Amino acid sequence: MNLSFFDQFTSPCLLGIPLILLSMLFPTLLLPSPGNRWVTNRLSTLQSWCIDLVTKQLMTPLNKNGHKWALIFTSLMIFLLSINLLGLLPYTFTPTTQLSMNMALAFPLWLATLLTGLRNQPSASLGHLLPEGTPTPLIPALILIETTSLLIRPLALGVRLTANLTAGHLLIQLISTATAALLSIMPAISILTSIVLLLLTILEVAVAMIQAYVFVLLLSLYLQENI
């Protein structure tokens, strides 16, 4: 029984082919198809408004040089948001519960922001490792601490997204299992747990949206330090 709780985090396969590849491509179906008109229907209008709102929120802290990253950040935000929300549907698999995938997204983008700072302003980027006015005896230890905190950023990005989504999915499965088990024994308690399950599902929808936004927002803040 304990192992079955974690079976939902195993990537399903068909004929030896991981279906995670198909699930990662599914959000592209939400993109509006080209036509003769700029706005084809109300869904396209809503999507355009949401994309514009997300782009403004992400680009506000950045200067003009950072606006070149608008397409990358907005696409990543929509990608993570779509996968997180689709993963809450029954009998679906959530790719963002896999640490390997989240690290594959976090590490290259973090490294790109770091290399951008080292190329454009190397003195300022390296200056973050040693704050001004640091006492001389503390310089070696402080450089080591700041370097460690810098290198741990991509790990923190990936682990944060994985842990929050994994914990939410486990709680939903545990409470739903308890609700089904108590239905024939104690119907009143089962009704109460089903209400808790409903509230938890609403909370997980909010967590899925917030975690996608936080992931991209932290990347934009890392970029802000290096431009």
From TrEMBL:
Protein topology in the membrane: Multi-pass membrane protein
- GO cellular component terms listed in the entry, alphabetical order: mitochondrial inner membrane; proton-transporting ATP synthase complex
Which Gene Ontology MF annotations are present? proton-transporting ATP synthase activity, rotational mechanism
Task: Give the matching SUPFAM superfamilies.
Answer: F1F0 ATP synthase subunit A (SSF81336)
Parts of the chain that traverse the membrane: 12-31, 69-89, 101-118, 138-158, 170-189, 195-223
Q: What is its main location?
A: mitochondrion
Q: Which reaction does it catalyse?
A: H(+)(in) = H(+)(out)
The UniProt entry, under Pfam families, shows:
ATP-synt_A
Where located? Mitochondrion inner membrane
Q: Which UniProt keywords apply?
A: ATP synthesis, CF(0), Hydrogen ion transport, Ion transport, Membrane, Mitochondrion, Mitochondrion inner membrane, Transmembrane, Transmembrane helix, Transport
Quote the NCBIfam families the UniProt record gives: ATP_synt_6_or_A
What family name appears in the similarity comment?
Belongs to the ATPase A chain family.
Q: Subunit composition?
A: Component of the ATP synthase complex composed at least of ATP5F1A/subunit alpha, ATP5F1B/subunit beta, ATP5MC1/subunit c (homooctomer), MT-ATP6/subunit a, MT-ATP8/subunit 8, ATP5ME/subunit e, ATP5MF/subunit f, ATP5MG/subunit g, ATP5MK/subunit k, ATP5MJ/subunit j, ATP5F1C/subunit gamma, ATP5F1D/subunit delta, ATP5F1E/subunit epsilon, ATP5PF/subunit F6, ATP5PB/subunit b, ATP5PD/subunit d, ATP5PO/subunit OSCP.
Q: What is this protein called?
A: ATP synthase subunit a
In its UniProt entry, the species of origin is given as Celeus lugubris
